[in-house]
Give the backbone structure.
Amino acid sequence: MRVLSAAVLTMEAFVMGFAVLLAMGEHTGSALTIGGVIAIAALLNAGLMKKRIGWIIGSILQIAMIGYGYVVTPMYFMGALFAGLWVAAFLVGRKGEAIRAELLRQRPLK
């Protein structure tokens, strides 16, 4: 769960960086700054995924990334795509951790 969500946030940071590059030609400095803050926050939040606050901030970043579609229109689609990956990381990761815990309970490490 933690690894998948950190990977999603890292990829989001790269996509937001490219979105800022797209917005550079025709938007103001404040729109570029907001995009940069979202990208850096996503990258830094990948390290917080061990704690509950990491999931909360990550969910807020999903909304912010969709909202950046106001500046760069394709970000509506990319934000929705990454929000879906965020939910999938949560659901699939939780199942994976449950399976791992069961395997460790059956055969503990030496």
Observations:
- The two ends are 24 Å apart (CA to CA).
- The first helix runs from residue 2 to 23.
- The chain is about 80% helix and 0% strand.
